[in-house]
Design brief:
Oligomer: single chain
Shape: elongated
Mean pLDDT: 92
Low-confidence stretches: none
Strand content: 5-15%
Bound molecules: nicotinamide-adenine-dinucleotide, adenosine-5-diphosphoribose
Helix content: 25-40%
Largest sheet: 6 strands, parallel
Strand order of the largest sheet: 3-2-1-6-7-8
Structural class: alpha/beta
Radius of gyration: 19 Å
Length: 255
């Protein structure tokens, strides 16, 4: 059904300091395997909570590295969807826009949102598991379900690890601080495609609301964030976001 976009469009058109906060639903229409449906082949017998942990990597680096390299290759084959492009178009209209994502893909960047804040790291930022030195870019195209020995760090020879926040790990402090600061000072926060269940990321929209910011949600389902949002658009990001940008700034908004 066509949502009445007018209230949300009016808020967005008047935004001076905008935060766009996104989760896995933002990339769903790009065909990126979500965290849980990436468990196929060799990995299908694993529960995500058991694979995305420092313990799993220590126990079997090739199993975990192979899985993340396969996910990274899957993301590299995917394309940003019209929702990602609509987010980039918003920043062209609201210069003070900060994109904060829980996703580990690079689709916001590939759609033009440079400077995206990654609260849970990125598949494209592998680093040394010991000295944290950044490691080189994508290796060979991994085969699905195959183990893959991680490369060794050029400085200290320890295994390279995925640059993703695992279960039990703290979030990268600089990213969390940048996200909280942006939520603290924004006048509008648009939350898209997140279940709002995982902390501390789920705090971000609540910080904006507590500080008097207007929160708009785009998600086909209800979430705990319904409680803090002023406008709730129940639809898929790739359809709703371009329509919202056109409603806010007219057809010239090139989305
Ligand atoms: P968890 O609850 O065991 O760990 C949460 C971690 O976040 C804690 O270790 C703590 O350091 C930190 N934390 C929790 N609440 C906080 C708060 N209020 N303020 C500051 N720091 C806080 O495990 P989890 O929450 O299920 O997952 C941990 C993180 O790993 C989450 O951010 C989750 O989204 C992320 N994760 C990422 C992937 C991926 O592939 N991107 C997969 C699984 C989990
Ligand atoms: N458009 C918008 N939202 C969508 C779409 C879509 N096309 N498809 C699904 N959604 C919504 C779902 O309704 C759900 O609320 O996206 C949300 C996805 O929720 P999760 O799978 O929990 O993803 P996310 O909120 O990003 O999870 C947080 O937990 O798994 C860890 O670290 C991982 O970053 C992830 C974190």
């Amino acid at each position: 059904e066509r949502e009445d976009l007018a209230p949300a469009a009016e808020v967005l058109a008047g935004a001076r300091r905008l935060v766009v906060f996104t989760g896995a639903g933002m990339s769903a229409e790009s065909g990126v395997p979500t965290f849980r449906d990436a468990l196929t082949g060799l990995w299908e017998r694993f529960d995500p909570r058991s694979l995305a942990t420092p313990e799993a990597f220590r126990a079997d680096p090739a199993l975990v590295w192979g899985w993340y390299e396969w996910r990274r290759a899957a993301v590299a084959r995917a394309e940003p969807n019209p929702g990602h492009r609509a987010v980039a178009a918003m920043a062209a209209r609201v210069p003070d826009t900060v994109v904060v994502t829980q996703n580990v893909d690079d689709l916001h960047e590939r759609a033009g949102s440079a400077g995206t804040v990654h609260l849970h790291g990125s598949l494209f930022a592998p680093r040394c598991s010991a000295c944290a030195a950044p490691a080189p870019g994508p290796g060979a195209e991994p085969e699905e379900g195959r183990r893959l020995d991680p490369p060794r760090c050029g400085h200290c020879a320890a295994p390279v690890r995925p640059g993703v926040v695992w279960f039990g790990e703290a979030l990268p402090e600089p990213a969390l601080a940048a996200a909280v600061e942006a939520a603290y000072r924004c006048d509008v926060l648009l939350t898209v495609g997140t279940s709002g269940l995982v902390y501390p990321a789920a705090e971000i929209p609540q910080v904006a609301a507590r500080r008097g910011g207007t929160v708009i949600q785009v998600n086909p389902e209800e979430t705990p964030l319904d409680a803090v949002c002023a406008v709730n658009l129940h639809g898929p990001a790739a359809r709703v976001l371009p329509a919202l940008v056109r409603a806010a700034w007219g057809a010239a908004a090139d989305v």
